[in-house]
Amino acid sequence: MSAQGMAGPIAAPSARPAWLESFVGQFLALLASFGIALLLGSFLILAYGENPIEVYRSIFDASLGSVDGLGYVLAIATPLIFSALAVSVCFKGGLFNIGVEGQYLVAMVTAAVAELNLDFLPGFLLVPAVLIAAMLGGMIWAAIPGVLKVKRGAHEVVTTIMLNLIALSLIGWALNGPLHYNDAPAGAFVDLRSNVFPKNGLVGDLGSVFGVTPGAHLSWLLFLAIAAAIVVWFLIRRTRLGYEARAVGSSPGSAKAGGVSIGSTQIRLFLISGALAGLIGMHQILADRGYLPLNYVVGLGFTGIAVAFLGQNNPIGIIFAAILWGVLSRGEVALQISSEVPREFIIILQGLLILTVVITYQIAKRRLAARQLQRAGMAESLDDSAAPDDSAGPRGPEYTGAEAFEPADEKRT
Amino acid sequence: MPFTDIAVAIQISFIYFTVFYLTGLGGLFSERSGIVNIGLEGLMIIGTVTGAFGVRFFTDTMGLGTVWGPILGLLFGALCGAIFAGVHAVATITFKVDHIVSGVVINLVAIGLARFLSSAFFDGQSTQSDPGGPHLARLNIPGLSSLPGGLDRAFEGLSPLVIVAALMVIPVWYSLYRTRWGLRLRSCGENPEATRSLGVSVPLYRYQGVLLSGAFAGLSGAFLAAEIIGAWREGQTLGLGFVALAALIISNWNPVRLMFFAWLFGFAFAIPLRLQDAPVISLLPEQFIRMIPYVVTIVAIAGFVGRVRPPAAAGRAYEGGGGG
């Protein structure tokens, strides 16, 4: 096909700006995967002899159907936003920080130490001091895999998983030793935990402002999470570090040739990720419990990975993905009350959702890349049938030629 | 520090060796074919829940006795691991999703799927099954199990699968290095384009590699749950799949060296269980002793990784068609 021949059909798509096209593409991919996951879930519900529409409606009613429900959903979403942001910051630079889990556990310990030792401070100083202590704790734990990766080439997936397990023992040691409670009433049986934090060191309840039940433990940390998402967006899109991170993430070779220090970028990303991870546990110790318990909620770091994928590593997308996750998690309650479908169905639905999102997003990305290649006029050297066609289904055969031009080994670091 | 403690620690190290070696062999097949598999942990999780169910089902429900029941149960765990690995295969080979992304998803989904399967298998119990499931008769290794001074304990009362795992090195080594199939599988991981030019279907071999990894990791999980613990417990794999991955990396993707490192890590895991009273170690708080195996893993991976070479094409998508 000649260049003149290509000009006609190409004119229409190139009229759209690239960011809009990529936004629409991502949105459609998300919508499609959501539809597929719900559809597959429906088959499962039918297998339990229930009506899928009824079940989905009961999930909706329990989560978004009332002010209290919404309060619960946002309270669940708050730590997940921090967690997914922490994962996504590293991901932008091609790093897999599976250690968010351990980083927030360590941060809960450092935050508890700050709470119990700085209790002479007034509240408006104590709470920020505690949050900073938490971020420092997360940064220390994130620095270890960062340095091992850069200096020794140790893959961060293995080192961070090991550090997660070490963090579990560390928190157990802290609660048995330095942080062991000594304010329990004599003779009373109390679960292993730290001393109760000073009242002015806690984060205020937000629910009372909006008429949400205090049981939801909705806190001001929600706004901190949204602010963090905006900061991360700014950092990735509008700063030099963000530019370098994206360069390292998409093509380390070109980044290096362009004068970017890969090691220093990766360590800085790990530190930022660790600081965000440090804030994950603050909701449960500062807003929910008021002390560091041994039966703290685990797994928020791993759920953050799922939420980051669901939000397609976009800070604003992550806010919505965390809320969606909260809706589904809250839906477990509805299933228990009103349905034969076991509550584990929600976990399966969440799993299906991540799987379909990852796959459809990959398909959309390739389609987009293929289209951009065609626009750049490279299509003529490819398959003759590679005419741009908006109506083609995902992975239409006409794009297989263009796929070969994607940089193949960019993910090896 | 009596000898019996060391002997029992060695016995425990054989159990962990089996877990690490079987899972590591799984990773070996997958990564040698060019597909990075960090979903080994998730595949093991599926193996634990299906294996624990399988031995009970075939032994008690089907009434096949305590030889064939556990054997079929363990194989059922391996089969389910392979089926679940199919998700990783489809995502990475057919849809060309990034291998690490897909592996992370596999690990996440496995946790939920295990709970779901568990509540279906074990009467609504979503995080554990009843203890005391059937297992294979224990073996003593002839000769070694009559050593003096308490050392005999190390070689007594072992699950037959420990010995099967150790002997597995022979068929695995032979199939990878002495058969046409093995040569093709390895060349898919080194240079898929050249492999295709010889008329070999790269996706076909990669599918085989990934499914085999699921079977081995599933068997490993089934061994842990059914043979060792006697029940399914949520979280019983606790990072062991990643330790196996670390052992695979520092053994330079070699099945013979993997034996040594799988045992070495196995011994590190036996320390907090049996050697907590040994000199020096006993000075540490209990929780720090429990960190030892994970610290050993980090130190090993940081110390060795520069000196190993992964399969050249592992981790990148193969863009060509099916070929011959």
Task: Give the tags.
heterodimer; A: 413 residues; mainly alpha; ABC transporter involved in vitamin B12 uptake, BtuC; 2 domains; 17 helices; 69% helix; 0% strand; disordered N terminus; B: 324 residues
Write a short abstract of this structure.
The complex is a heterodimer of chains A (413) and B (324). Chain A is an all-alpha fold and 413 residues long.
Question: How would you sum up this structure, described in words?
Answer:
The complex is a heterodimer of chains A (413) and B (324). With 413 residues, chain A is mainly alpha-helical. Chain A is globular. Helix content of chain A is 69%, strand content 0%. Chain A has helices at residues 3-14, 18-47, 52-64, 67-92, 100-117, 123-152, 156-176, 207-210, 221-238, 240-250, 252-257, 262-278, 282-289, 300-310, 315-338, 344-375, 400-403. Mean pLDDT of chain A is 83; it is low at 1-13 and 382-413. With 324 residues, chain B is mostly helical. Chain B has one domain (21-259). In chain B, helix 3 packs antiparallel against helix 9. The relative contact order of chain B is 0.21. The model of chain B has no long low-confidence stretch (mean pLDDT 90). Chains A and B meet through helix 7, helix 14 and helix 16 of A and helix 4, helix 10 and helix 12 of B.
